[in-house]
Design brief:
By secondary structure, this protein is of the alpha/beta class. It folds into two domains: 174 residues, NAD(P)-binding Rossmann-like Domain (Rossmann fold); 111 residues, 6-phosphogluconate dehydrogenase C-terminal like domain (6-phosphogluconate dehydrogenase C-terminal fold). Helix 2 links the parallel strand 2 and strand 3. The radius of gyration is 21 Å and the shape is globular.
């Protein structure tokens, strides 16, 4: 048992999956979850993602050795400010947010003021489904989990957070918060914008009614993540807007080059576009590449 008590602030897909995995692996004496609605208390306990759920934030956090923020990014600071008086001295606070620089900048000193430790985290795992009912105990197995310590971080707290994720089957990777945000802008945030625009454009009601009937496997696979939480992705896009804006610009330029090749009937350039994409993706999916979902 790594912790006597773990508190999950937010028990949706990621929080619920954490709860299931922690309970299955017996990594804590008890797991408590904070939820916003009374109805969610019953649902979480019925599904078994936590030992106890409550809509009382202070009660949920009291005496916790590890607190994991599993809420949309825009809620993290407000909730941390609310539970700070109940936070145990020496406790560790971490998160699962998809943007790290702003979260670390806001929460590290705030948590330190209560005599506790903040260590940023981001498991590269998820799904388009939302809510605790979609939780899976194996969600984090073989997934990369980025840990973003700073010069102010407690080395012991960082070690314990890394060991926690290893115990869930994940593979910790240390990065500076800013480096993380630059990389995920390309590999995670940009693909979601592209998937959303494909869904917006192709399924627009301005097209003939037969359009949707011609959307098959390729469209389904390419747009799967567009069914994710709009609230969560709004927060992510805005929190990482500088990086996302930059990579969107490069992406649009690349598409314009392909468009130029089409306009000029440049068969060689068109083929090279698809050949390069296939080679790079096949190499990424090779057994030794350890891709993160």
């Amino acid at each position: 048992m790594q912790f006597e008590k773990i508190t999950l602030v937010g028990v949706g897909l990621l929080g619920g999956s954490l709860g299931l995995a922690v309970r299955q692996r017996r990594l804590a004496g008890r797991v408590e979850g904070y939820v916003r609605r009374a109805a969610s208390v019953i649902e979480c306990e019925k599904i078994g993602v936590v030992d106890r759920a409550t809509d009382d934030l202070a009660a949920a956090v009291k005496d916790a050795d590890l607190v994991v923020l599993c809420t949309p990014l825009a809620q993290m600071r407000r909730l941390t400010e609310q539970f700070l008086p109940s936070l145990k001295r020496g406790a560790i606070v971490t998160d699962v947010g998809s943007v790290k620089a702003s979260v670390v900048a806001e929460l590290e000193s705030l948590v330190a003021s209560a005599g506790a430790h903040f260590v940023g985290g981001h498991p590269m795992a998820g799904a388009e489904k939302v809510g605790s009912s979609a939780a899976r105990a194996d969600l984090f197995e073989d997934a990369v989990c980025v840990i973003t310590p700073t010069a102010k971080s407690s080395s012991e707290a960082v070690r314990r957070v890394e060991e926690f994720w290893k115990s869930l089957g994940a593979r910790p990777l240390r990065l500076a918060p800013e480096a993380h945000d630059d990389l995920v802008a390309r590999s995670s945030h940009l693909p979601h914008v592209v998937a959303a625009e494909l869904a917006n454009y192709i399924l627009s009601p301005v097209h003939p009614k037969e359009q949707a009937q011609l959307c098959a496997g390729g469209f389904r696979d390419s747009t799967r993540i567009a069914s994710g939480s709009p609230e969560m992705w709004r927060d992510i896009a805005l929190a990482n807007r500088v990086n996302l804006d930059r990579v969107l610009g490069v992406f649009i330029e690349d598409l314009q080059e392909f468009q130029h090749a089409l306009e000029h009937g440049d068969a060689k350039a068109v083929e090279e576009f698809f050949v390069k994409a296939k080679q790079r993706r096949d190499a990424w999916r090779a057994p030794n590449s350890h891709p993160a979902e």
